[in-house]
UniProtKB/TrEMBL annotation, chains A, B:
Transmembrane segments: none annotated. InterPro entries: DNA-bd_dom_put_sf, MerR-type_HTH_dom, MerR_fam. Residues 1-69 form the HTH merR-type domain. GO terms for molecular function: DNA binding; DNA-binding transcription factor activity. The keyword DNA-binding applies. Keywords: DNA-binding. This is MerR family transcriptional regulator. Pfam families: MerR_1. It comes from Microbacterium tenebrionis.
Length: 204, 204
């Protein structure tokens, strides 16, 4: 199909498609004439992935890393998950103190060598943000966070398809990045429900 | 204290402090001379909140809404939670289909009138992103998401302090926005642990 049809099918405007082509997030179409290229279903699917990642707040550099992982997946399922996490993670920051993060990670069953250290930086950065704002998470609440996240991760990893590297990386990368906004949105709905139950119309 | 000392104490550079003052995120200091102002502990604390929100990915417009809620909190604890969610939520989008989102919300105990509809838009937007990428969440996994988020929200709302509107809004706004990166980071650590357990060094 031509670029105009690709645009209609994917819902992505032609100038944006051209931008993705220039940024090499989308592979070139097959040349059908010197100034014309032909695109296929793989392009429609890839545009869906890019659009979803961008909508999920992943940067263009992050999208590029995800796309590279999709194009050239590692051979081990565990390495795959690691590279997917690195692809969508913010860069490591040596200024961060990892002590508290490592303590929480250990409570999740983490040991040195378990996986990518970059995920610990993300925990440390989050703890740093809470500390800077003077916000403390009570120990009982933190325990609930750890239990819930472990239950979620166990269910997710149990569902990783092993039929092909492509299927696994698709599941892992998209599952990590795209499920995040869903979890956060569900949490807010659940907070509204719990708040209505506890406070109703109560005046402070 | 003078602006240079405020900068040292808060770790925020002077030009950034001036930017926050111009954007009215930070209240003016007390004029001590025509070209000089004096700042207090409230400014240090407010800068911590702003810096944490910005680090958590909240936009300047979002920070302004949070700051306005902190300066003028609503009188009901439930309304407070609602306005906090609205402050940090992306704008509603009428193009989104709310049917699937409402179905999930109902499973969390949501009924019409429970709270701010804006949280449903966030669910719909997340589902839309997953759909655009061709990613399906298996029903059993979705059930785990719903259960975990309900447990988290119940524990969080049970801990909302009711001593003062300021304490409650601080807890709700910061707890919503700043705990998000912590939950997501803990999920990734737990995924690495579960992945190492399931796959070890297995080759696909």
């Amino acid at each position: 199909m031509r670029i105009s049809e690709l645009s209609t099918k994917s819902g992505v405007p032609v100038p944006t498609i051209k931008y993705y082509l220039r940024e090499q997030l989308l592979p070139e179409g097959e040349r059908s004439a010197p100034t014309q290229a032909s695109y296929g279903e793989a392009h429609v699917k890839r545009l869906g992935v890019i659009r979803a990642l961008v909508a999920a707040g992943v940067s263009i550099a992050g999208v590029r890393r995800v796309v590279e992982t999709l194009d050239d997946p590692p051979t081990s399922a565990h390495l795959l998950l690691g590279s997917a996490h690195v692809a969508i993670a913010p860069p490591a920051d040596d200024a961060l103190d990892l002590v508290a993060a490592k303590d929480l990670a250990r409570q999740l069953g983490w040991e040195p060598g378990t996986g990518e250290e970059s995920v610990l930086y993300a925990v440390a950065r989050a703890l740093d943000g809470l500390k800077a704002a003077g916000f403390e998470v009570a120990p009982a609440l933190m325990a609930t966070y750890l239990t819930s996240m472990r239950e979620i991760a166990d269910a997710e990893i149990a569902g990783v398809p092993t039929s092909s590297p492509e299927a696994a990386v698709q599941y892992v990368v998209l599952g990590s990045a795209l499920v995040e906004p869903l979890l956060l949105a569900l949490r807010r709905v659940a907070q509204q429900v719990a708040s209505a139950k506890r406070f109703g119309g109560d005046v402070l």
